[in-house]
Amino acid sequence: MACLDSLLDGSVDWQFFYYDARLASFTDEWPHRSANLLPEKMAAAGFYYDPDNTVRDNVTCPFCLKSLMGWEFDDDPVVEHSKRKDLCYFARLQKEEEEWT
After folding, report:
1. 2-96 architecture in CATH?
2. What CDD domains does the record point to (predicted)?
3. Total-model pTM
4. Residues 55, 1, 82, CA angle at the centre, nearest 5°?
């Protein structure tokens, strides 16, 4: 229900439900270049880039609203998402947008 509440109160932008918008959020400011943390993999794991003044590698899931930071080069964003928020429907389903019904 947190996801619906967040949409209704405007705290999350619905566009980030879609891969292309999540991917586009990763600007040149994204500090990681390792293969595991490429923007494509982060967006596929459900995250959009959500930095603030103090944390340059913060990402947020628009589905469960979990934010993660402090990424290490060998982290797997899918695994980290699932470990940190086991109730996230996006992380649990891991379906392509075309498969959503």
Report:
1. Orthogonal Bundle (1.10)
2. BIR (cd00022)
3. 0.81
4. 50
